[in-house]
Amino acid sequence: MPQVLLVDDDPRFVKVVASLLSRRNLQVKSVSNGGLARQALNRMDVDLALLDLNLPDIDGLSLLHQLREEGNNTPVIVLTARSKPHEQVLGLRLGGDDYITKPFDPELLLARIHAVLRRSSAGAGRTIGRGRSDLVDLPPVLIDLSARQVFKDGVAVRLAPMEYAVLEFLALNRGRAVSKEEIMLQVWGTDRGVSRTLTEHISRLRRKLGEGLVITMTGFGYIIPTDPQVPAAKAQ
């Protein structure tokens, strides 16, 4: 049973969310501050964290930044009342896998939790043996689909689960322009409220792997060209 860590200091909210998730076969732990959250996340027994930003001891964005800087890649969905666009962008840019504002639709929250959990565990059952079809070569980027690893110029690049999911989907469809709606449905399981999340994941991929890998198709979506020599200047 997947284990979700709920980081929030509002006991009434915790009770409501914990009840909602437990009815859907999710095991819930809750902590009320950032210090306890770090302890729980560093034990590596958490499959996903729901993180409020207004914590009593540390701002949630600072906690998220610290976790990612320390190499902790536990999937994190920011679940907060802060709805300003720049805060949403910052939360995603600092390593959040998704950003949901309160109040929220319970079914939408569940759908996006399951999407992140599905992507974070997608590689667990893959076999160790691999053939040429398991490698996608997009010089200077190489994607090992079997191991769910990405390399740039031969050096491993650490991607968050949802970053990898977006990259894998685009890579498997290279040479085809893919709409934003198709990517969102494939990766997050919904196209409701995910547009900004997708945009920030593309930005993070470009920062880590190079500006010329994923090309924007203005007004439509994105494409990874079949020809890896497409100039980086075409990326938008």
Key features of this structure:
alpha/beta, Arc Repressor Mutant, subunit A, 2 domains, five-stranded parallel β-sheet, 8 helices, 19% strand
Written account of the structure:
- There is one protein chain.
- With 236 residues, this protein is of the alpha/beta class.
- It folds into two domains: 3-120, Response regulator (Rossmann fold, 3-Layer(aba) Sandwich), CATH 3.40.50.2300; 132-234, Winged helix-like DNA-binding domain superfamily/Winged helix DNA-binding domain (Arc Repressor Mutant, subunit A), CATH 1.10.10.
- It has eight helices and twelve strands.
- It has helices at 11-22, 34-42, 60-69, 85-93, 106-120, 161-172, 180-187, 195-209; strands at 3-7, 27-31, 48-51, 76-80, 98-101, 135-138, 141-144, 149-152, 155-157, 178-179, 215-217, 221-223.
- A five-stranded parallel beta sheet has the order 2-1-3-4-5, with helices on both faces. A four-stranded antiparallel beta sheet has the order 6-7-8-9, covered by helices on one side. The chain has a three-stranded antiparallel beta sheet with strand order 10-12-11.
- α6 packs across α8.
- The longest helix is centred in the middle third of the chain and has 15 residues, at 106-120.
- The radius of gyration is 18 Å and the shape is globular.
- The termini are far apart.
Distance between the termini: 41 Å
Fill in the CATH topology of the largest domain.
Answer: Rossmann fold
Strand/helix succession: EHEHEHEHEHEEEEHEHHEE
The figure for the number of domains is 2
CATH architecture of the largest domain: 3-Layer(aba) Sandwich
**Rg value:** 18 Å
Instruction: Tell me the name of the CATH class of the largest domain.
Output: Alpha Beta
Structural class: alpha/beta
Strand content: 15-25%
Q: How many alpha or pi helices? A: 8
The main pleated sheet reads as:
5 strands, parallel
Helix percent band: 25-40%
Strand order in the sheet with the most strands:
2-1-3-4-5
Number of extended strands = 12
Shape: globular
Q: Stretches where pLDDT falls below 50 for ≥5 residues?
A: 123-132, 230-236
Task: Report the mean per-residue pLDDT as an integer.
Answer: 87
The CATH superfamily of the largest domain appears as Response regulator
